Amino acid sequence: MNKARAVSPANIAFIKYWGKKNPQLNIPFNDSLSMNLDRCLTTTTVTFAPVLSEDRVIINRETVRDTRRQRVTEILDAVREKAGMKLKAKVVSRNNFPTAAGIASSASAFSALALAATKAAELNLSGKDLSILARLGSGSACRSMVDGFAWWKRGTSSQTSYAVQLAPPSHWQLRDIVVVVSKEEKKSSSTEGHEGATSSPYFKTRLRKLPVRTKRMKKTILEKNFEEFGTLVEEEAIDLHMIAMTSRPPIFYWNEGTVQVMNKVRQWRKEGLRGYFTMDAGANVHVVCLSPDEVELNRRLRRLPQVVMTIVNQPAAGARLL
Ligand code: PMV
Prior knowledge:
Layout: E1 2-15, E2 20-22, E3 27-28, E4 32-49, E5 56-59, E6 62-63, H1 67-83, E7 88-95, H2 106-120, H3 127-137, E8 149-153, E9 162-167, E10 174-180, H4 190-197, H5 203-223, H6 226-245, H7 256-270, E11 275-278, E12 285-290, H8 291-303, E13 309-313, E14 320-321
Bound molecules: (3R)-3-hydroxy-3-methyl-5-(phosphonooxy)pentanoic acid.
C-alpha cells in the first residue's frame, strides 16, 4: 500500500519572512531564521489508493473542502507529477497543540505533508528538495524540514529558495514559551500580510537593514550570545509589526494581552529575569529565554490575567517519518 506517516514541528521565526517576491512560488524578499518547537507538532498520514475518486483531507477529525483542501491538493499534484502517478490520496492530519489556540500550524502541516506524501509515493527526495516542496505549501514550512535552528536562504528561483541547518537542536538550550493571549482566529491571515507588506513606506528601509541584522543574529546564535540575540529578536518583532501596521490597509495583530506580556517581559528583565519577546502574524507572544529562567518566567506569565495558557518548547528535530 502507498501509505506513509510523518511528524513535524511548528517553528518560531527570529528573523521574519514578510513579503513575497514571487507569491505563486512563495519566494521571499529576505532570508529568515527560526527554531523548531518540540511541543507544537503535526502528524500527517498520506495514503494513495485506487478506490479514491478525489483527494480527501481530514484535519483534526474534520473533513475539509475549502481552500485548505485546495492547498493540500496542490502539493499532492506536485508529488504525483514527480512520481508519474495519478492516484488520489487520503490525508489525515492532526495537531498535538490546541487547535483553537491561535498557533500557526501551516509550517508543521506542510512540512509533515511534504515528507509523508513523497514517501507514500515512493519518492526519495533530498533534504533540499523536501524543503522546496514544503515551501510551495507555506513559505515558513521549508524551515521545519531541517533539524534545530534553520536558515531559509531566499534564493532567486524555486530551486535556490530553501532552508539549511544553522545549528542542531542540541546546540543551545534555548526555550520558547508560547504565551496564548487569544484563542480567536486572527482576522487577517499571513497571506494578506505578505500581500500588503510592500505597501508600507518602511518596507524598503526594513529590507536595507535586514542583511546586517540577519548576519549579526546568526553570529549570536552560533556564539550563544543570549543578550545580543534577544535584543535583535525584539527589534525584529517590532519591525515586522510596524510594517503590518503601516501597510495599506493597516493590519493590527496585537491585543491588550500582547501589549501586557511585552511590557511585563521588559519589566521582569530589569529585575534580572532574562526573557525577550517576539510575535508572528498573530496576537500570541513567544517569550525566548534560557533554561535557568524558564520556570519562573512561565510561572509569572501564567498568572497574568490576559494569559489563557502557555506552552514551553525546546529546540526540536525537523520533519521525520514515523
Ligand atoms: O509561511 P506563512 O505564509 O504562514 O508566513 C509566515 C509569516 C510569519 O510567521 C509572520 C513569519 C515567519 O517567518 O514565520
